């Protein structure tokens, strides 16, 4: 938890330094590399967990149905909020274009 | 890009299951958090440079809590509806759904409370939720709306899936995702034992 906030905070602070915009492209590239490392390591961790791979057959269907239910339910309730969030956060000139 | 994301996860799973030794898996697993910190660092760096996003986001005020509330209620409603199909009682379904994508904690909590099978279901359900979120976020954020793409990730929108939301969404949606993830992370250790205590 502290690592999550700490890394975000360090990024925020360094991004505020004058002239930090010069490193914007480098930062984006590093972010993409980090993203694929993160997803790859997540996959390796799951694939290497014998318990998960074995239980996929037994309780996988139940877990999948529940996961789909949870995602569908959250999408259904978040969807009506989207216009409010969009209207209040999109710059005026852009919202006029929409 | 979405295919590359899917390929990274599936390729990783295949490598972990068939190719790598337990020592290599342990080494890579230890590197995972550092990759996460690198991504979060770059997200923070990007957010700092878009100060107008903070200003626009602050206009939401208390409404910012609507997103996590809807995500929690929607997740619970969804599992309550499909739970009977899976042979689960009402509160059993809710205790699984209350994991909100945080698989390690929800599974461990239910197992430690004496519900070992339910703990295994919660663990796997929330693993699958995270995998489905990884697959659906790019599509939802680019084709429908970046704010809607926050919903599938649940509690992971403050870490793992935040990287995807940052890549495909807007700075405003990243801020909303961060708050959503923090609120849900606080809610999981409260909701899972609460619903588990109501199981007969």
Strand content of chain A: under 5%
Helix content of chain A: over 70%
Indicate the low-confidence ranges of chain B by residue numbers. none
Class from helix and strand fractions of chain B: mainly alpha
Number of strands of chain A: 0
Helix proportion of chain B: over 70%
Globally, the shape of chain B reads globular
N- and C-termini, Cα separation of chain A: 39 Å
The main β sheet of chain A shows up as: none
Please report which band the strand proportion of chain B falls in: under 5%, 5-15%, 15-25%, 25-35%, 35-45% or over 45%.
Answer: under 5%
Largest sheet of chain B: none
Which structural category fits the helices and strands of chain A?
A: mainly alpha
> For the CA atoms, what is the radius of gyration of chain A?
20 Å
Return the string of H and E elements of chain A: HHHHH
Using only C-alpha atoms, the radius of gyration of chain B works out to 18 Å
Please sum up the structure shown.
The complex is a heterodimer of chains A (98) and B (200). Chain A is built from 5 helices and no strands. Chain A has 98 residues and is mainly α.
Question: Could you characterize what this model shows?
Answer:
The complex is a heterodimer of chains A (98) and B (200). By secondary structure, chain A is mainly α. Chain A has five helices and no strands. Chain B is built from nine helices and no strands. In chain B, helix 4 crosses helix 5 (90-97), helix 5 crosses helix 7 and helix 6 packs parallel to helix 9. The interface between A and B is large, with 74 and 101 residues.
Core attributes:
heterodimer; A: 98 residues; mainly alpha; flat; B: 200 residues; 9 helices
